[in-house]
């Protein structure tokens, strides 16, 4: 038996796809509460004419799984059902939606369209029991002509939505499976002689200066248009200066308006250009996501995304992996973000069966593919921000994608076409890769990538600019190594930047639920929690790092000169205020404004620097550079051997060697196994000797893993120095240790009733956490926060909160203060729980504070890398020392 939703076909009864236009014609929003009935199978037993009186109510837009019907499920690549296209499981959850509508009386004559902006995954719509059409393409707009079906009185609108359909095979994006009417619904009046569609191509001639414009409108009546500025006077649009102009197009029946931007995207000489200048994406991949509402994102959430992106110097978004809510594109136009808009096509699950039966190469799916591409391009063709079309994601390769590329190039020659899966660049205008290593990226930058078999094709690809449609996997704590990517991008004009994977953690609800938390049997765990912002959009340290790495102004000290590099393509530094300050110890002793003559776009300039150590120079809040003052060594009195039971107000519960960390998700994909094999997580201590001499109380301890003969020889030396204590620790690695260590130092457990409320004040890098390959955003200074605030609440608990280059700290509890001063800068993490607790927790709320404060003092730590999908920690960020000496003075 074949159900309608198993027939591979474009929408039926749908009006031609067209641009989203602001209009003075009537628009009636149908968002709000609808009647709703849910059924675990497609046979709902509900008649389309049934108005649904007495049924439950559900908000539209929304996903039914988030209102208690069925449950969300997360898979990355795997389809959660057998691959048997176009068939889907009998257990096909189905939602029946009802709403009474009334055609507004003032909508005289003309037609009425019913518009859906997003319904997941297949639906049929009826008016008073009469079918108006069917549609799929979950993240694509569709309109039905319902003119003849509306009576003018109360009409029953019925929508039956099936969770699974043939379309699900094209919607295997790495995200939650969530269903229902999740974007807005509206009734649109189309007056006779109105304007059905407008196509604007607004270019900018950067040589002559001035705009070029072509306007095509679809109407049965004569059309006029008017631009809010003469073309010769328009300013170009760019993400740096998103200048928009109002274009009004009218007939005597309707006026529509568009905010258009003048810009020309081109590929010239192997480079990607915008208005003649290099177009380098410093971008992110963004899914529509909200922790409470899934893909039904509010306008506020979209505004927040855009504001955060702009604040963090992000200039581009790839709408992975489907067209976003149309409002998001308006925001990109208005606030300045370049958009690679991607079509709602991903057939990734077929890769697990060697791409057998992949729809991308099956003629039976050709019309559906083309329909999807057309609906995206037609809706968003006038968006200034959209600078590139993407055919989809991870769908293999085949004739249907090639046909979509051809159609797009013909329909819209003004924008290059992208698709990462066209590895030979047979049909696309840019070469795209995901997660290349640094060396590979540099080789591509130099045009030295391995050759394709076909020389002509190879020549063509080698002549194309390259983008990383995904890099810098932001899962858990990370990504590390972004500065290294940026350096490679900077060095090679062929490289047009890239897009971090990804913008937001898709953790659901307050708790940040991930795969498996809903009892799914097939799932991919926390792989969906891989964003630069946490689910509630709180910026993670990874976002701060990315912002610092991609900052449009860069500062460097070179002897007694400051080098100011302007990385903007169109903007000078004339509005940037450069400041300097001198600090001694932790106090600012002098400050002022630095006179830096304006630096033009893509150029740099040297200016003299004020002399002296402890110098910080800032470029507004965009960039900083420091020449830290060396910390003054602590004055230590004469030493006497001693064994403290208490440090300041805190009784000591334990002091141990610390060579372990709660693995990050990047560690899990790389170093963790080697660390566990080496037994770093389960070192066994044996005291070799305890003795006092004239100066020290000495304790020598051997730490070794079960079953192995390698280990650490450690000597702890304690002495009293007046009111203070000295601790020196010598650590020697013994045996065959060829691996980088997570960290190397000591962990002190201190007793205190409310460890999270202890106030932590330190001198070192801050205020955020930092690791050897993620420290562009932190600066030397004195910082204070509670221990609780010093934890980064990653959705999946893991190593976090390291503060680097710390020279001293104070821990304050109601019982008093403890000052700790290092002879040399050290790595610090202070936690209200142990590493073991952190490692075992699956969710943040599994972590509970006890009565111990854990103070981790390390000679060094290993960086983060991005091995959960991408390169491991670079050798330069690995901690490999064979010996370490730590020395601290503790005073109350
Ligand atoms: C890519 C894919 C993304 C995401 C990422 C890993 O292959 O395009 O959707 O799955 O890997 O998080």
TrEMBL record:
Enzyme class: hydrolase
Keywords assigned: Glycosidase, Hydrolase
InterPro entries associated with the record: B-gal_small/dom_5, Bact_Beta-galactosidase, Beta-gal/glucu_dom_sf, Gal_mutarotase_sf_dom, Galactose-bd-like_sf, GH, GH-type_carb-bd, Glyco_hydro_2
Its EC number(s): 3.2.1.23
Stretches assigned to the Beta galactosidase small chain/ domain: 635-891
Presence of keyword Nucleus: no
Reactions that this protein is recorded to catalyse: Hydrolysis of terminal non-reducing beta-D-galactose residues in beta-D-galactosides
GO molecular function, one term: beta-galactosidase activity
Protein origin, superkingdom: Bacteria
GO BP, sorted A to Z: lactose catabolic process
Annotated Gene3D superfamilies: 2.70.98.10, Galactose-binding domain-like (2.60.120.260), Glycosidases (3.20.20.80), Immunoglobulins (2.60.40.10)
Gene Ontology CC terms, in alphabetical order: beta-galactosidase complex
Family named by the database record: Belongs to the glycosyl hydrolase 2 family.
Name of the protein described by the UniProt record: beta-galactosidase
């Amino acid at each position: 038996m074949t159900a309608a939703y198993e027939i591979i076909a474009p929408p039926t009864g749908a009006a031609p796809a067209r641009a989203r236009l602001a209009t003075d014609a009537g628009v009636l929003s149908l968002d709000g509460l609808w009647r709703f009935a849910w059924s675990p199978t497609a046979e709902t037993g509900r008649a389309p004419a049934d108005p649904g009186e007495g049924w439950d109510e559900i908000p539209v837009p929304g996903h039914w799984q988030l209102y208690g019907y069925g449950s969300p499920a997360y898979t990355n690549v795997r389809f959660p059902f057998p691959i048997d296209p176009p068939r889907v499981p009998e257990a096909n959850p189905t939602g029946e939606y009802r709403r009474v509508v009334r055609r507004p009386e003032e909508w005289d004559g003309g037609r009425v369209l019913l518009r859906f902006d997003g319904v997941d995954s297949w639906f049929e719509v009826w008016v008073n029991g009469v079918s108006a059409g069917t549609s799929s393409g979950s993240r694509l707009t569709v309109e039905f002509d319902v003119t003849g079906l509306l009576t003018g009185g109360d009409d029953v609108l019925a929508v039956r939505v099936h969770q699974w359909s043939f379309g699900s095979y094209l919607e295997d994006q790495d995200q939650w499976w969530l269903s229902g009417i999740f974007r807005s619904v509206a009734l649109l009046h189309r007056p006779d002689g109105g304007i059905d569609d407008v196509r604007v191509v607004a270019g900018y001639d950067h040589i002559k200066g001035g705009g070029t414009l072509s306007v095509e409108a679809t109407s049965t009546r004569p059309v006029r248009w008017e631009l809010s500025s003469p073309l010769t006077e328009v300013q170009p649009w760019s993400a740096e200066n998103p200048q928009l102009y109002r274009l009004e197009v009218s007939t005597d029946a309707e006026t529509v308006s568009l905010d258009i931007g003048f810009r020309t995207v081109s590929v010239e000489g192997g480079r990607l250009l915008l208005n003649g200048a290099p177009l380098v994406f410093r971008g992110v991949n963004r899914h529509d996501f909200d922790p409470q509402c899934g893909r039904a994102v509010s306008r506020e959430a979209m505004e927040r995304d855009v504001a955060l992106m702009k604040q963090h110097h992000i200039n581009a978004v790839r709408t992975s992996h489907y067209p976003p809510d149309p409002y998001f594109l308006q925001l990109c136009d208005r606030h300045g973000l370049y958009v690679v808009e991607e079509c709602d096509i991903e057939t990734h699950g077929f890769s697990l069966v060697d791409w057998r039966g992949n729809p991308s190469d099956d003629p039976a799916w050709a019309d559906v593919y083309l329909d999807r591409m057309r609906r995206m391009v037609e809706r968003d063709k006038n968006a200034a921000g959209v600078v590139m079309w993407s055919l989809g994601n991870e769908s293999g390769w085949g004739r249907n994608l090639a046909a979509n590329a051809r159609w797009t190039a013909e329909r819209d020659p003004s924008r290059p076409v992208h698709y990462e899966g066209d590895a030979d660049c047979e049909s696309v205008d840019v070469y795209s890769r995901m997660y290349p290593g640094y060396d590979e990226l540099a080789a591509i930058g130099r045009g030295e990538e391995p050759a394709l078999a076909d020389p002509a094709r190879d020549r063509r690809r080698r002549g194309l600019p390259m983008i990383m449609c995904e890099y810098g996997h932001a899962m858990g704590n990370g990504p590390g190594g972004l500065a290294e990517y940026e350096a490679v991008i900077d060095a090679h004009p062929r490289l047009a930047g890239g897009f971090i994977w990804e913008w937001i953690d898709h953790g659901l609800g307050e708790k940040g639920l991930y795969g498996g938390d809903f009892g799914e049997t097939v799932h991919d765990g926390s792989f969906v929690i891989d964003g630069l912002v946490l689910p509630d959009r709180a910026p993670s340290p990874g976002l701060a790092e990315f912002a610092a790495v991609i900052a449009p102004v860069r500062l460097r000290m070179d002897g007694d000169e400051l080098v100011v590099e302007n990385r903007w393509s169109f903007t000078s530094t004339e509005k940037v205020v450069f400041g300097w300050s001198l600090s001694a110890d932790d106090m600012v002793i002098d400050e002022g404004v630095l006179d830096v003559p304006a630096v033009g776009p893509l150029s740099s300039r040297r200016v003299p620097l004020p002399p002296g150590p402890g110098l910080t120079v800032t470029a507004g809040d965009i960039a900083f550079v420091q020449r830290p003052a060396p910390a003054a060594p602590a004055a230590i009195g004469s030493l006497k051997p001693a064994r403290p039971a208490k440090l300041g107000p805190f009784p000591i519960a334990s002091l141990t060697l610390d060579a372990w960390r709660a693995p990050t998700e990047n560690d899990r994909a790389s170093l963790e196994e080697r660390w566990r094999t080496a037994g770093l997580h389960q070192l066994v201590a044996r005291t070799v000797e305890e003795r006092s001499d004239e100066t020290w109380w000495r304790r020598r301890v051997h730490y070794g893993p079960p079953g192995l003969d390698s280990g650490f020889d450690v000597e702890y030396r304690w002495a009293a120095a007046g009111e203070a204590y000295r601790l020196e620790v010598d650590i020697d690695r013994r045996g065959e240790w060829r691996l980088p260590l997570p960290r190397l130092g000591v962990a002190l457990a201190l007793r205190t009733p409310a460890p999270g409320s202890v106030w932590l004040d330190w001198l070192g890098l801050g205020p955020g956490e930092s690791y050897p390959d993620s420290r562009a955003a932190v600066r030397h200074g004195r910082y204070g926060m509670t221990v609780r605030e010093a934890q980064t609440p990653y959705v999946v608990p893991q190593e976090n909160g390291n503060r680097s280059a710390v020279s001293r700290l104070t821990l304050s509890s109601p019982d008093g203060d403890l000052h700790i001063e290092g002879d040399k800068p050290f790595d610090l993490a202070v936690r209200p729980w142990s590493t073991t607790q952190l490692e075992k927790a699956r969710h943040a709320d599994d972590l509970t504070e006890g009565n111990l404060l854990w103070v981790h003092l390390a000679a060094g730590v290993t960086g983060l890398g991005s091995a959960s999908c991408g390169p491991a920690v670079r050798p330069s960020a690995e901690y490999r020392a064979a010996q370490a000496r730590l020395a601290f003075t503790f005073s109350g």
